[in-house]
Every structure is written in C-alpha cells, then in structure tokens.
Amino acid sequence: MIESLLKGLAVLEREALDAVATAGDADTLEQVRILYLGRKDGKVSAILRALAELDPEIRPRVGSEANRVRDVIRDALERRTTELTALAGRPREGPDDLTLPGRARWVGGLHPVTRVIDEICRIFASLGFTRARGPEAETEWYNFVALNTPLDHPAADMQATLYLSGNILLRSHTSPVQVRVMERHQPPIRILAPGMVYRRDAPDASHLPAFSQIEGLAVDGGVTFVDLKAVLGEFAHRFFGPETRVRFRPSFFPFTEPSAEVDVSCIICGGSGCAACKGTGWMEIMGAGMVDPAVFEAVGYDPQRYTGYAFGMGPHRIALLKYGIPDIRLFHENDVRFLEQFR
Ligand code: DAH
Question: Does 107 fall in a domain?
Fold first, then answer.
C-alpha cells in the first residue's frame, strides 16, 4: 500500500515538473498550477486531503512525502514564472532588433554667411537700426546717378556691371537702398540694408560675381563723424571682440565726403602681423563716410538741415576673415563637409 502511494507521488512529481519546464507562457503555467496544486481538484492537493483517511501507521511517511512534492512543484512554478517574465522583457532578435542604436536624423543649419548677416543686423538693431531692402534689378539712377556717380565716372564703368536691358542693371552695391529709403522717408533715419550685389568679376579665391553687402545709413540734424566712429567702433567691439582696435583711413567714394576705409586689428594675430592680414596687423572690413550733400539733393533733402553717415560692408568677406577661410568659392560649392563646420 505505502509503496504504491509513494510511487504514485513520484510519478506526479515528474509529470508536474515536466509540465512546468515546457510551459511557454504565463497562462499555460497557471493551468499547470491548477492541475497539480489547485485548491479544489489539484492532483497533489487531493492526495493531501485524503491523508486523513489513511492508516495512521503510514500517514506520516506519505504525508511528509506529499508535502515535499507540493513544495518542489511550487518552487518550480515560481522559478519558471520568473524565467518567463525575463524572457518577455527581452527584445526580439532579428530585423527588428530594438537594441540597435537609432539612425541619427540629418540636422541642417544656417549658412555661415547668413549667420554673419544675422549677427551684424542684430548688433545694429540694438543700436537703433531697422532693416530695409531694395530690388536687385536697379536703374542707373539708383545705382549710380543719385549716388553722385555720373555714368562716365570710372565707378560706373560698364565693364564691372551686369546690365539686363536698357538702363536696368543688377545692382553693383547695396547703396541704392539709401536713395530709395530717403526718397520715401524723412529723417531721422537709421537703416541697415543687407542683400546680394552683382559684378562682372570672374570667380577666384577672393571674388564672386554675386556676393552679399550690408548698407548702413543714419541721417538726422547734427549727425557728425563722431557718431559714425562711435557706432562703427561699438559694432567692431561687439562683433570681433572687446580687444579689437579700429582705424579709419582716408579714402574716396562718390556718395560720401569725407570718406574712409575702416580697418580692424587682425582677428587672427591680434595686430602683430600674420598671413591672414598679410603682415600688416589690420583687416579692412568696410567703406564709410559722411553722406555727400549731392546725394541729399538728389533725394530732395535739405543739405543745410541734415547731415548723415553711411557705410557698406561685405558679409562674405567678413565671414572669410572671421572663420579664417582661404577661398570665398567654398561658400557656394554646397559641400556639406565644409558647411556643417559652422553649425
Ligand atoms: N558701395 C560701396 C562699395 O560697394 C561700399 C560703401 C562705401 C558703402 C562707403 C557706403 C559708404 O555706404 O559710405 O564698394
């Protein structure tokens, strides 16, 4: 009697452990638990319940064996549950391997020349200059004549200018925006006009037939050269750094009198002389001057009442200086390896 009971328990134990080991998910495992340890009909539970009816002589042996089998099955169920939970949490292998690193999204950026233009406009905006703009196809009047540049003046030489038809040409500088603004508005005026300009120049390391300029103009009663120096000095310190020195060299432009070229101490060597500044310690960044009374007359301003200053700079050139770029053509080759350095 006792032998067959113990053998039956051993068979149940093996059966149950097999069923636990092969259960592939939590539901199957729960069914296995109910089958063997279920309170009502579980096979092991039934034996435990039947112990009471056993002969007291064999009851302790069978009872302790039945308890052991129940504990073994319970432990096996617990271990398998942990195992299945861990398996479920692990990412699937194969083509959808979620542990692979993500593919980086390509992030664009602003062109280095656009950055320079924005930065310059931001500085002048804080000094009270608003943005203005004018057309890229201009008439000779705006591009030359109103700017005190007769058409037979060397600066109006057709050699350097791209004509579209008749007296319409691609503007060779942003200075015509000065005229357009003054024609439409009365002083006080403080504008900054960024834009593209065009010249019949073959591209080389320092020339492009299309490049950017930024024009500045301030007109009011009592504006002097001191205002010009102060504003451009402030700009140079903010844009190139507080150590930067500024110098004004006498020059000539038809639309300003007096006129100056504005240099800043070399931003690469600080002024001691290097390849970037060709050993001079200085870098030319713009032309400037006091607005010529002839320009005021062309736009209908009273030159006795108003004075003003103007300046013009080339963001392409300034970007070359700022970043130490050896060839201006790099800006327009659309080589992402070059452009992404400025993000
Ligand atoms: N328009 C000049 C050029 O293209 C630059 C310039 C010089 C602009 C002096 C000005 C100025 O407003 O005052 O070379």
Answer: no
Q: Which of 53-67, 142-156, 162-176 has the highest mean pLDDT?
A: 162-176
- Is residue 162 assigned to a domain? yes
Per DSSP (E only), the strands in 128-255 are 130-131, 137-139, 163-165, 168-170, 189-198, 210-220, 246-253
Residue 276 lies in a domain: yes
Domain count, the chain: 2
Atom of ligand 1 nearest to the CA of 291: 13
- Does residue 287 have its Cβ closer than 6 Å to ligand 1? yes
Atom of ligand 1 nearest to the CA of 215: 12
pLDDT for the residue 268: 86
β-strand partners of 310: 217, 289
Report phi then psi at 341, rounded to 5.
-70, -15
Say yes or no: 151 and 203 in one domain.
yes
Confidence band of 212 (pLDDT split at 50, 70, 90): very high
Together in a domain, 286 and 146? yes
Centre of ligand 1 from the C-alpha of residue 175, in Å = 6
Going by DSSP bridges, is the β-strand pair 189-198/130-131 parallel, antiparallel, or unpaired?
parallel
Question: 63-88, pLDDT tens digit by residue?
Answer: 888 888 888 888 888 888 888 888 87
- Quote the ligand 1 centre to 129 CA distance (angstroms): 17
Q: Is the pTM of this model over 0.85?
A: no
Q: Where are the alpha helices (DSSP H) in the chain?
A: 2-22, 26-37, 43-50, 59-89, 112-126, 140-143, 176-184, 225-240, 293-299, 315-323, 336-339
Same domain (yes/no): 206, 328: yes
pLDDT of residue 92: 59
Are 49 and 141 found together in one domain?
A: no
pLDDT for 213 beyond 90: yes
- Report CA(299)–ligand 1 centroid distance (Å): 18
Q: How far is the CA of 253 from the centre of ligand 1 (A)?
A: 7
